[in-house]
What does this fold into?
Amino acid sequence: YYLLKQPDHYCSLRTTLSMAAKAYSAAKKIDQNTNPKNLLGVAVTASLATNYSKKGEHKFFIAIQTYKYSSSFSFTFLEKGKLTREEEELIVTDHIINAIAQSCKVQNQMLVESSSLEIKTVKAEKNWVKLVANKIDFVSSSNRIPELIFPGSFNPFHSGHNSMSELAEKKTGLGLAYEICIQNADKPPLSYHEIETTLDQFGHGQEWVLTKAGKFTDKAALFPNSVFIIGADTLTRILDEKFYLNREDMLNQLDLFNSHNINFLVFGRKIKSNFIDLDSVSIPEHIAKRFSGFGEEIFRDDISSTLIRKEQD
It folds into this structure.
């Protein structure tokens, strides 16, 4: 998959934004001689007329990702079945050309006006741009260095996250910060739309930090002497040898948790039909004491962010 996993919906604004963000990231790798300010990523997803009647709307989404902003264009055809496939494709093409022209500040561009078109542009905060450009290591909502860190996509933030946060703060006595990694090897980078939407979920008094630390060994180096909140499913991935050169390499990298004084609070998670908690996972002896957990009798919440997203879209 282009997005490294099957999207929740193939034709959606969320999917299109992710595709554009990945396209921009790819453009920077392909053309390393061009200033990133002069590159852009473009993506489109569409559900158009075909040789059978569709249940859903005929629509399309276009996204543009640049150095300093993300733009989206959402369009729904008001009368399904009125236009042929070729006519709908021509409208999509016109809008793509117009969107690119606007981003390139081309004069006398093709004029596309429609009451069915919804346009949104999110301009990046200065520190977001610096983080993307690797000029700073993280962006924080406060001046306090986080000690209790809850990594996640929070897409969306839900009641399970809130309950886990409260239990972790009560157990440790530390103030919590939510960590959102905006780019790592397992997922497409976040667009500025997605960063804004994620951060807008957090209310007054809820601290957050943006990073590009995809691996927990990277997070450990960035925030030494910290406690990380993780699910048992994440723990199994941390201990999966396939993500390392070999077992010796895995054990050596995991020893960074000792050298950086990193501890973990592990919450049980439902994986397929089984509930997995800390006691279900075999942890290498040299780091075993750094993990403590909450049993199923204290916390269990099977709410799924994926299912919530599908309902939202």
About this structure: The first helix runs from residue 13 to 30. The chain has two domains: 13-123, 128-312. The two ends are 20 Å apart (CA to CA).
